[in-house]
Write a structure and sequence with these properties.
Elements: H1 3-10, H2 18-31, E1 46-52, H3 59-73, E2 77-81, H4 101-113, E3 117-124, E4 129-130, E5 133-134, H5 136-140, H6 167-182, E6 186-190, H7 208-225, E7 229-233, E8 267-271, H8 281-287, E9 292-296, H9 300-313, E10 320-324, H10 333-339, H11 347-368
Parallel strand pairs: 1-2, 1-10, 2-3, 3-6, 6-7, 7-8, 8-9, 9-10
Antiparallel strand pairs: 4-5
The chain binds zinc ion.
Length: 375
């Protein structure tokens, strides 16, 4: 799901529950003033944009994007992928970026005033490295590596060990900081493209599906204590042999067998980036009792296909559309340049234009015939 991995491989082809939500958000709301509760859009009207977290310095551009442009595009949820790019108070040794608590509060308040709910994202389990670069967790705590025997650069992305007793307390501290900083009723925990699982000496002998489901349930249960509903990418719950997609957006490791034990209030972000004959994963996940948030990148055919598959199957549980902007830079400066009619000619900005066109096209179609499907 991550930009570099997806874009590297997919370039050229492309990479009623509202009440329930409010109930789940209630405990957190008690800890804040009533005005601090951000509105969660009704099912069917989640129009999200996923961006990489801005830096402290580039925050002003993201604020401008949110106030001047996103409302006109209909965007009402901003998913901000933070990962370790934040000035952690509980674990300063894991700070890879310089966005501060005050910055997060400013972004949240600015977006709220513009009618946009900010949802922070923290990539869990997988994507703890990219080629030779280890993310802060594994760089600082190499003992958490699920694949200590794999040489540097030999795998695209490392995972943390789901069985190491030191990981979860530390990660929960980070998630708690994000909950407090972004005052959020929803949090995205990633969990996509996990390839390294069940490999280390602690995990060997356990079933992959148990390791995966335990991770999901523990994250879910911790967030629930904060009154926060969890969302995650859905690809590890899709069997590659089931005709749901390809190498990246489905699983062949056995993680898909965990689906029976995943709490049904988890929002599943079902991403597919390439045109396909059908998008069977959408009705499959809906049929399993989940609310599904179809997630598109720059393929209009894929976005329409997922939207229509959801509307045909279970429109009340199909939340809307999440647009992912992997190639738009931190805080989406490429998207801002595209919106201002000043793309810089780079491949990144070309893709920003594509994403922008996709958002506008689907928004026009939604306004014209809000509940119809193509074909
Ligand atoms: Zn392990």
């Amino acid at each position: 799901m991550r930009g570099p991995l997806v874009s590297l491989v997919m370039r050229g082809g492309p990479a009623a529950a509202f009440a329930v939500l409010l109930c789940l958000a209630a405990p957190a709301a008690r800890a804040e003033s009533p005005a601090a509760i951000p509105a969660v859009p009704p099912s069917g009207q989640w129009r999200g944009l996923h961006i990489k977290v801005p830096t402290h310095r580039s925050l002003q551009h993201t604020l401008r994007l949110c106030t001047d442009h996103l409302p006109a595009l209909g965007v009402n949820i901003l998913v901000v992928e933070v990962n370790y790019r934040y000035k952690w108070r509980s674990h300063p040794e894991l700070s890879e970026g310089d966005l501060t608590f005050e910055d997060a509060r400013k972004l949240t308040a600015t977006c709220r005033a513009a009618g946009i709910l900010v949802v922070p994202q923290f990539q869990c389990l997988g994507h703890q490295s990219w080629q030779r670069h280890r993310n802060a967790l594994l760089a600082r705590y190499p003992e958490f590596d699920e694949s200590p025997d794999r040489p540097e650069g030999s795998i695209p992305a490392r995972s943390w060990c789901p069985s190491h007793p030191g990981v979860k307390p530390l990660v929960f501290d980070l998630l708690d900081e994000l909950v407090d900083a972004f005052q959020t009723p929803l949090l995205h925990v990633g969990l996509d493209e996990v390839q390294e699982i069940g490999r280390c000496s602690r995990c060997r002998g356990s079933s992959v599906s148990d390791l995966f489901s335990r991770t999901v349930v523990d994250l879910h249960d911790h967030l629930a204590t904060r009154g926060v509903r969890m969302m995650m990418w859905a690809d590890r719950l899709l069997d590659r042999k089931g005709g749901f997609g390809g190498f990246h957006d489905t699983s062949d490791s056995g993680t898909h067998l965990a689906i029976g034990s995943i709490p049904r209030d988890v929002v599943l972000c079902d991403w597919h980036y390439e045109p396909a004959r059908s998008y069977a994963s959408v009705p499959y996940l809906l049929g399993q009792g989940f609310q599904v948030w179809p997630s598109a990148w720059n393929s209009l055919a894929a976005a329409r296909g997922m939207r229509d598959a959801g509307r045909k199957s279970n429109p009340s549980a199909t939340l809307g559309m999440l647009y992912t902007c992997w190639s738009c830079g931190r805080g989406a400066p490429g998207l801002l340049r595209a919106l201002l009619g000043k793309p810089d000619g780079s491949e990144f900005d070309k893709q920003a234009v594509e994403v922008l066109n996709l958002i506008r096209t689907l928004r026009r179609e939604e306004k014209r015939r809000p509940n119809e499907v193509d074909g």
